């Protein structure tokens, strides 16, 4: 046998453990959610691996044992894929989990409230066990994948952990993992049978494997996405969303979509209220939030290239019977089936949002204010969905009240007959849009102007180009249509009377910086504007392009 070895945690892990064990007092119960979700992940993988080899996955359970007599220990055991010695060292000695990383990055000083908030949102994974334990032992056997031995990882949550061969009395499962927690004196109440019942109901009632608490079945295993929409309770649905996404918001919309042709699909998708990238740093793009299943077997969590990247904010499960179980991760990426499935689902998602936008406009607009960015990104990046996405965009305009939004279609329907184009103005705020001289010409003709507050909006307009057959035109651009009357008026302008003023502007005041200075009837109350120049965002874009090609 290999002698026991004591290894130091990586610096980052040590820092995390230190915070978890010493300063987090709120929401300690989330340790159960974290450990059960790890057990469930390991079971999913064991089931998948066995089925892909055409083998029977055997018993797949999570067994939780409390010690009500003196509340000193709590054991959580699973029949999952287990861990080899190397995996124990690697997986439990370093922080790979994005949640834990986000947790560390999101900490500001010693602000406990913020920490508790983040832990609720992301969790800290396995290390949460140290919130309630003085010592944690992980006894694991990797079954056929391993060396035939069971290994024991143990730590007091201080700077080091020890790894050694497990003994008979450690009671390792044949394949799987047992987490034995030695409970802190003041946390006994949490780990009593009653305490665990409460916590498990709250966090884990729909886990896809049986959970036995002291031998009694706790949950009825049901893949929520197979249920009919009408049989879904809000409570279980929200709990499912939260466990799956690690988020803590209330998703305003959920979509339960089922089809039998052209593919057999069962899906349950959620639209978060909060932008999941809000906490990510600059350039921090989150990964896909959708997991791919085939007949209730997990194929891959957070499947990239299933839905198009701009739909990465969508959370949930897509289960498709047509996907073969033994599909490899590599072939997933260029599988025609997965591509086709992704296209069907993307169209469905956009159709669903369109229905919501029409049926519950207030709720939709509120959602759009937070998440609309992703749809705008879609307009700019994904040609295939442009038309559907155009229907989903919402903007303030000169005809809406502050804070109220209009669709492009509604704008087009309001257009007077004389109006040829859809107009927009780019401005950082409503106030600035309203006081812009560029607005005047359109307004004086009774034309509505869309207010675009975000940089991306101008690119959105340039990618869309047309809506309802009308060109999208910036009021800053020179080709603002001029009606007959004002053309006459322009001709009637006495050029000679203003020649001096024009000359002074062009030659003296702005010496040589202007191509041409002329009189116009375009403005009503502002004395002058620049025209014929490139709009702001385009100028910046051109600059970036020039820099990139240099
Ligand atoms: P995450 O679950 O996000 O990866 P955790 O800190 O919860 O992060 O767990 C770290 C890693 O430890 C997991 O990715 C997994 O590889 C391993 N692990 C944890 N618990 C188990 C378990 N019960 N069975 C098998 N592997 C596990
Ligand atoms: Mg985990």
From TrEMBL:
Domain Histidine kinase/HSP90-like ATPase: 27-187
Recorded GO MF terms: ATP binding; ATP hydrolysis activity; ATP-dependent protein folding chaperone; kinase activity; unfolded protein binding
The keyword Transmembrane helix appears for this protein: no
Protein keywords: ATP-binding, Chaperone, Nucleotide-binding
UniProt-annotated binding residues for ATP: 34, 38, 78, 83, 91, 97-99, 177, 329
Superkingdom of this protein's organism: Eukaryota
Family indicated by similarity: Belongs to the heat shock protein 90 family.
Protein name (database record): Histidine kinase-like ATPase, ATP-binding domain
Residues of the full protein shown: 81 to 630 of 714
């Amino acid at each position: 046998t290999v002698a026991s070895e004591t290894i130091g945690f990586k610096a980052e892990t040590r820092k995390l453990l230190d915070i978890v064990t010493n300063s987090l007092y709120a929401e300690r119960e989330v340790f159960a959610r974290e450990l059960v979700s790890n057990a469930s992940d390991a079971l999913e993988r064991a089931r998948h691996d066995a089925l892909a080899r055409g083998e029977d996955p055997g018993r797949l359970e999570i067994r939780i044992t409390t010690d009500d007599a003196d509340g000193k220990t709590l054991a959580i055991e699973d029949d999952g894929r287990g861990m080899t010695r190397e995996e124990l060292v690697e997986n439990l000695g370093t922080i790979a989990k994005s949640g834990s990383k986000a947790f560390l990055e999101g900490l500001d000083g010693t602000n406990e409230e913020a920490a508790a908030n983040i832990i609720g949102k992301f969790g800290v994974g396995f290390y949460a066990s140290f919130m309630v334990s003085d010592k944690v032992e992980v006894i694991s056997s990797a079954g056929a994948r391993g060396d035939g031995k069971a290994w024991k990882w143990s730590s007091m949550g201080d700077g080091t952990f020890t790894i050694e061969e497990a003994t008979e009395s450690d009671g390792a499962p044949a394949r799987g993992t047992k987490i034995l927690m030695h409970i802190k004196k003041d946390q006994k109440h949490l780990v009593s049978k009653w305490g665990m019942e409460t916590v498990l109901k709250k966090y884990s009632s729909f886990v896809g494997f049986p959970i036995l608490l002291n031998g009694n079945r706790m949950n009825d295993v049901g893949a929520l996405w197979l249920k009919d929409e009408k049989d879904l309770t809000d409570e279980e649905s929200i709990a499912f969303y939260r466990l799956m996404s690690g988020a803590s918001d209330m998703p305003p919309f959920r979509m339960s979509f089922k089809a039998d042709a052209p593919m057999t699909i069962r899906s349950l998708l959620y639209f978060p209220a909060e932008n999941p990238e809000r906490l990510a740093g600059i350039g921090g793009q989150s990964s896909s939030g959708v997991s791919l299943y085939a007949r209730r077997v997990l194929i891959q969590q957070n499947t990239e290239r299933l839905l198009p990247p701009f739909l990465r904010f969508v959370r949930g499960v897509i289960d498709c019977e047509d996907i073969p179980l033994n599909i490899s991760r590599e072939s997933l990426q260029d599988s025609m089936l997965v591509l086709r499935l992704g296209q069907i689902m993307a169209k469905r998602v956009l159709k669903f949002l369109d229905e919501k936008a029409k049926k519950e406009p207030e709720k939709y607009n509120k959602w759009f204010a937070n998440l609309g960015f992703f749809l705008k990104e879609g307009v700019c990046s994904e040609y295939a969905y442009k038309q559907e996405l155009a229907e989903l965009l919402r903007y303030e305009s000169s005809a809406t009240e502050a804070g109220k939004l209009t669709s492009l279609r509604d704008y087009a329907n309001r257009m007077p007959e004389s109006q040829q184009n859809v107009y927009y103005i780019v401005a950082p705020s409503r106030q600035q849009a309203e006081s812009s001289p560029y607005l005047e010409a359109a307004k004086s003709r009774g034309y509505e102007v869309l207010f675009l507050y975000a940089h991306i909006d101008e690119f959105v307009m340039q990618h869309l180009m047309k809506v309802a057959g009308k060109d999208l035109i910036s009021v800053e651009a020179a080709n603002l249509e001029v009606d007959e009357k004002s053309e006459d008026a322009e001709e009637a302008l006495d050029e000679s009377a203003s020649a001096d003023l024009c000359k002074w502007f062009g030659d003296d005041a702005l010496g040589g910086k202007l191509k041409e200075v002329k009189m116009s009837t375009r403005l009503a109350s502002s004395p002058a504007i620049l025209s014929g120049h490139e709009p702001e965002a385009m100028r910046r874009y051109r600059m970036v392009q020039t820099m990139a090609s240099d």
